[in-house]
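Risk register update: the risk of archive-format incompatibility is retired. Evidence:
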Amino acid sequence: MKKKTNKAFKKIVLAYSGGLDTSIIIPWLKENYPGCEVIAVSGNVGQVGELDGLEEKALKTGASKLYVEDLNKAFIEEVVIPSMQMGAKYENTYLLGTSFARPIIARRLVEIAKAEGADAICHGCTGKGNDQVRFELAIKAFAPDMPVIAPWRIWDIKGRDEEIDYAEAHNIPLKISRETNYSKDKNMWHLSHEGLELEDPANEPKYAGNMEMGVTPEEAPDEGEYVTIDFDELGGKHGIGIIDIVENRLVGIKCRGVYETPGGTILYAAHEKLEQLCLDKATQHYKQRMALEYADLVYNGQWFSPLREAMTAFCEKTQQTVTGTVRLKLYKGNIIGAGMTSPYSLYDPEIATFDEDNVYDQTWADGFITLYGLPTAVFAKMKAKNNL
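Archived output:
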């Protein structure tokens, strides 16, 4: 039994990955919006291997054409690098891989929809997830009156098993089976895994055979390897960047996922090390506080917002002297600092030394501590006076 759709659309642009959700959406759209043309759009953000055979599949299942758009440059330069410079980690853990890609893909969807004269945009995001918000906020930023079709919010399909049933009934080829039916999202920055045993936080993730961008720490070499960032990544080989997180979705649900972000984890670590060397204390600490708010904006789909743009402008100012070389040792899931240099370093070895120096008079500390500790001393005297 099908739920009724309220409006007839003649031309629909679909965000198309070729995964389980969007594979069945093309025939579903053709069934529920009779006579409509479906134009599939795939954003290439570095999901190596996943674009192979996509055009044939899209056309066979009912699309009139497939756009495969190279969005790698925009993805990295417009979103990943500014977020890395800010140090944005959602809930201080997640490096935002899925969140990074959505605004860039959605912006291109709108551009193609306008060029094609489409009267609706469709996506395959579930009504429980964050991606529906990320896609639709970006669409509103560039086409505020464009209708959006979200099949998961209106069809009768209840879960991924029923999606597979639908695909089998319509002879739609899938790359997954019911046993490997993880919900995955891949780009050059990361790979996310959700579903199956991960839906119970008590279960240990089945890492063996499921890691695609690298290995687990147990499988990593017994010898460490050094990397100097000018920015060459070796993270996957050494089990870097695998996290198991229960995160708080925007829609109020706690969700568990395993994320692989090997190269990104190294870049974040190197950048943090360099900022320790090059930023003054007040700027570094304030920026760390801002990073949590920035990560929330990215995670919540507010990339195209005035606040995010203003925060990026602040971040860009702080980065004018964050230049140099960082050396890291990669060993069994760990990133260990092994030295850093910068022409803009604020570290003065003559001041910091434990040996004799001619630039720091240690008696200066007396007056500083007297003034800095004055509120503490006054409070202590008040407590003693009042027997508190």
